[in-house]
């Protein structure tokens, strides 16, 4: 294993998750620099976490520090340009969601990956918990029978004060509402578990918050394996919960959590009178209890860097998710069912997830 030099760009609240993960893996990675446009904030953050160098300009940091890995924890509208800068500077990237705000941007990031030989990964930590990893294997092996029906709900609460932060609630800076900024984790996990999606029909609306973007979205999705799924994303729900339900031929699997999970957040149920000990044994054979976290994802990312391999959750791996989110917005705007892969260059939704909605506000 190598020990890598890492830098953090953006030192707001979410950067706390990144520095915690980096410190927990300090034998494998050293944090050499931090960047923020607010001088006082980056200085305070760096001194608090023992980071030796801090900057207010990302380009200067990249030129002087030559990090192997850059963590990007800025508002969404800055992600794309910082990813491109970092890749071109020879660094791998771990970026907060959403990675970017259009399929066009994602495809360009993929081109720069090929040119630089480095990879960009999106923070989708739900994929990396031990129970999620094990569950994925069981699905692939059809250990619970065929999957049939899925439910994915991100019902959270964000009040008016939350949207007083200038970059929130706007197409140009946040890139969308709960579809892009909140439910994205659960939806990515849902799609990753169930496989290739085929088509989606959706509604979005702004029911109660004074914002440009939606505050709720609902979608119905059909997968290529014929699984049918329903999805709800909301920031209007006082009792907050992230909930999944997966119905298989031989069992129901449920997950109830909020921002992360451990093995204890899952529930396994078999049909009454048709319990199968072999199926239950497969579900219970997991011993590791790794939470879904930035640390879990970072650990696997460092493994991939050690082996010079493309990491899980990099651009090609997450493109189906961004295609799906974009298709939700297009379906809601056009009142049409949208097929996977149908949004291509020349389509306004290819250039931005909002399509023509951004120009209407």
From TrEMBL:
The protein, known as: Oxidoreductase
Stretches assigned to the GFO/IDH/MocA-like oxidoreductase domain: 134-253
Any one GO molecular function term: nucleotide binding
InterPro entries assigned to the protein according to its UniProt record, in alphabetical order: Gfo/Idh/MocA-like_OxRdtase_N, Gfo/Idh/MocA_Oxidoreductase, GFO_IDH_MocA-like_dom, NAD(P)-bd_dom_sf
Domain Gfo/Idh/MocA-like oxidoreductase N-terminal span(s) in chain numbering: 5-121
Pfam families from the UniProt entry: GFO_IDH_MocA (PF01408), GFO_IDH_MocA_C3 (PF22725)
Domain of life of the source: Bacteria
